[in-house]
Each structure stands twice: as C-alpha cells, then as structure tokens.
Give the backbone structure.
Amino acid sequence: MTSALTDHPPRAFPIRLTPLPGEALDSWVAAYAARLQTPVQHLVATLGLGPRFLSQPAADIAAGHHLTDAQNLLIAAGLTADQAAAMWRPLARYTAVVQAHGATPWLRRAAKPLRGSRYCAACLQDTDGRWQAAWRLPWHVACPLHRSLLHTICAGCEGHQRRTLPQAANPHSPTHCQGHWHRNDRRHQRCDRDLRTTPSAPAPAGVFQLQDRLGPLLDPATTDTAMSSLITLITDVLTVARHLDSPKAPDGHGDTDTPAAALGAAYLALTETNGERLTALALADVRARPHPLPRTWHTASPALTTRILQIRDSRLRPTDRIRWRTTTTGNRPTLTTPDNRVRWVPSALWADWVVRLRPPNTDPATFAKVAAATLLIPGANCSLTTLFSAWTTDPTIVRTACYVLQTVAADDHGLGVLRALTQLSDGLLRHGGPIDYHRREQLAAAVPLLEPVAWDRMCAASGIRTGGARKLRFAQLWTWETITGGTLERAPDRLRPCESNDLAGYHAFALGLPPMAAELLLAHASALLGEHGCEHEPLTWSPPADWVDLDGLPGRDPEAISPDEVGRLLGLGVPPTDVAQRLGTTLDHIRLVVRQQPPHLRLRSTGKRQTPIRRPFPTELTPQRLHQLVVTEGRTLRSVKNEYGTAKHALRQAMERDGVPPPRPADHPR
C-alpha cells in the first residue's frame, strides 16, 4: 500500500468495525456501509479510496486492486496496516501465483478466484452478513465450520452473488441477494431474498481433505516453494475433475465453476493407493491406436503426466512409448529437430548392449541397426523420416524400425528392452558421447585404412601368414568396424562382404585373429585417428551399465562368461555356434568376448598334421632400426639374426618389405 496524505487528514469515524479473520475487503466495505447506514459510494469517498476503487468488480476489490490511499483508510476506520492487508493480500498473492504457474489459459481461468462468491447460509447468520475471502476460490466449495456445501447461486433468482458491491444504504444488503429476476419478460426487479434461509446440503467425499491440503495457500507464512507445490496440486485436481465433469461457464461471465463432487472425486483419485480411479480415467478414451497423451491431459503437472503415460504405456505403439518415454519418466516430446545424438550414435548399437538387449527372435544385424536408430527417438517431436534422414541414407529404416520394435515389444522382455533404449538415449542427452561417429565414417571412407606393407609387418610380428588380397580386405574391414562401430553393410564398397561366403570368412578371420595381431591392429587404428584430428577421442567406447536399469533384459551380461573358456573351446576346434550353445549364450556374445579380450587359441589336438606357423618377427626391429643396423653400422645378417633370435630369410623379407638396402658383401683376402 502507498501513502498519500491529503492536506486535511480525514477524521476518524466514531463507529468502528473490526474485520473478522479471513474476511474479504469487499465484505468489510459493504458491512461497514450497512453499519453506518450510508451508501457504499459515500463511504468509499470518505475513506479516500478514489472512484476507480468502487467502479471495479467486487473480485478485484477483494484482491486490493487500485487501493492507493490506504493511509486514509487506516486513519478513518481505525485499522492497523496488518488488519487491512489481511483482507486483500492472501487473494492477491494467490492470483499472482496462479498466473505465474498456470500452464494453459484454461488452467489459469479454472484456478483463479471466481468473479462472484459462494456463501454459507449458516456463516452469514452467525456473522450477520460477513463474507469470507476463501469463498471466492474455485476449490473452496464447503464450509469447514458447519460441514456443509457452500451455495453458488441464489435459490430464488438463480443469480450469482458479490459480482459488484451493493450501492444503496440498505442495512440488510450484506445478507440479502443483490441479483435480479425477470418479470413479464420486460422489467427487472431486485430479488432481495434472505440468503440466510437457504437450506444447507452435505459436502461430497474428498472435499474437506482437499481444502485442508490447500488451506496454506491463504496463509501469509507459507513460503513461495510451498505455494508452487500447492498450485501444482490444484493443477492436477482440476485436470482430473475435468474428466469427471467438465467445468463450464454457466452464466457467460467468465466463471469456470468446477462441481464440488468432481473436485472431491478428483482428489481421491489422485491420492488413493491402488490408483484404480485414475487408471479408469486415463484409459477411458483408449482405442486401437490411441494418442499417448490426449489434449485434455495437457494441463497436468509433470508428475501426473508421468503417471498417465505409464498407465497408457501398454496400449501404445512402440515408437510412441519411446518418443514419450512412457517406460521411464513419461515426458512430452519437445525436440523439434535432430540433436547431437545424431553424431554420438553409431550405425549399429554397441556390441555389449546388443548382447544384453537383443531378444532371441530378432536378427542380430537388423536389431543392432534399429536399436541404434531408436536412440534418436526419445523426446523428439519431428517425424521419424526427418529424424533418421540426418543419421542414415537408408530409405527403409523407418519401416524396418517400426516392424522390429513391434516384434521387440511383443516379446516377454519387451518392456525392459524399450526402457533400456530410452535410458541409453537419455544418458547421451545428459552426459554426451566422446566419439563423433559421423566424422569417423567420413574419415574411414576417405583415407586408406591399412596398407599391404603395414599388414605384412603386423603378420610377421604376430607369426601368422600374411595371406592374399582377401585376408588384407578382412583386416581392413576389421579396422573399419573398430573405428566406426558401424554395421558391415555400411562399409565402403571395396570392403563390404557381398556374399554369405565372404561374411562367414570375415567372422572366421575375426574369431581367429591372434592377440598380437589384434593389438597391433588396435594400435594402428589409434595412430590413424591421431593423424586426422581425433587424438582426443577414445578408440572405442560404450555407455556404462549404470545408465540403465538392467532388470528384465533378455540377454546375459557381457562379462558373464570366461574368455579363457571361450579360447579353450575354440582352440579345440569347437565351432563358435557350438561354443555359444555350450556356454548358454549367443554367437554375438562369443564374438564380443574374442574381440574385447582375444583368447590364446590352442592347436586342435586331433593328431593331424598342422600347418606350420612362421616364427614371430621381433617388434623392436622397426624399419628405422633395421636400416641403422644394416646400412649405417654395416652389420651382417648373421650378427643381427644372432642378436634378435630370428631367421635370415625373415630378415631378408623385412628388408625387402621396408626398402632397406642389402648389406655389402664382405671383402675376403686372396
């Protein structure tokens, strides 16, 4: 309130009227005028409140609008500043909080104070016509003192009360109806019915519990945080009540009056333990292909939105379940364009997560591709075509994804798989990814991945045969798969296995790759990335397991089997498919174990003659070191052989491969 003392301070009235606890400002002004038997406009002018104060609706007067000359009011009426503020400040604060937290115009209209006022006939009888500020609140529909339902309209003329202040000097105006009723369809006549004679009615169930919860909204000591929490409760109650009995404006003056029975039932539906009523309301409009969240639920708070989406989860399409996160947090999608996940998601899901998530009735390669594409869906508000086009050029990815996800959802572990994919995607949004897979695919397609000389050097150091062009292509494809983390079908044309024989041969190559060769290939891939600006990225990466709730997944943990046991069985010549069957896992799991920790393969003990393996060439004999020994120092091949424990023919092959000139022949004396 602002102070504006006039040149002649007002004279204090000899007759005082003390405001009652919880009384509204408009009620006190009308009661004071009735007590002084003077028109309200004369009293307002004497109090120095100004003409704008009286010309506004009674609801604005109750909220203290245009209360400029409050100092004159305090002097004339003999009130303290706290007594005056207690009549208008609770409603004003409540209105401001509703406007700030109202999510939609409908919600702000439904939660704001009413233009008129409800009333309790017994309270008007006890207080001789004093009206409470709480009677203007849309959720305050029952009198806690008399345990009866508040009245909304006059029983005689069906008019709403306290839209404007009464102007005449009528001592009975605070307790009588100020509405009008039609006579002969031409003239209006004031109703003037005694509101204290209105019969009372019992309050429906749940109303008093709701009012007790929301009572602190009018308490000046309530913190802003507590006010926001209570406004959230009002939001949810009004949203649920909307589905029980849609509130309407019965008189066309802007009041959205929710029925008391709907308010009580809505509160009980929100607070009951089993949630049967809320479940029935959430599934009332479910059809064959329902929308995840109908428009009538858009006013719900985030917590209630989560509950509604989780209730409707099992009835939705898999893509909608992932998009709206119905298996986890249940949030509305807000991302209108593809985000950074396009760069952080490889073209195939990480191998360890494929082992955990893939149901047995799906193809491994197709599931890995679709699961990776699914990571882009949570929270996205654009179409799947727009979303996937920024990630892949495959024109069939949308149709394939919908089909595979439908198959996954029908599996017994479908809920766990969809939940895990959603959590992986949210983890990428929250923490990001250390690898830009899109840049790596461009890099791997533009630079030579593995030169024949480098591959021959690795084979010599590992003690394996170099092989021909087919084996070199497999090594290049292994390097491409390591760098990009992608599917084999997205490899460059020069590397992609086009026939089933090539695909089987590549998998056999990857399973039979010795540990030394695998380590050298990994080191070569790391060096290749470092040469092209990716030195700060790890060579390979996979989301940690603590991002995901691992319960209810169809696959085993990738570390559930021993690499030594896998190596022993493969070394005995057991086919990889039989190894997976013996260990109770999948072929993908076996390949993952071999790739992560290459086991030492043992020769098959069948008694047959084995193909000899070349002696490993010393890794310390690099091309630079060999050139220094032979050319610079003039060492003979025999001395180098004796020092490093290798064969002469291996040294000659290394010199020829690395371009080291042969040693000069020794001069023999005649």
Summary: The two ends are 124 Å apart (CA to CA). Confidence is low (pLDDT under 50) at residues 1-7, 249-254, 601-612.
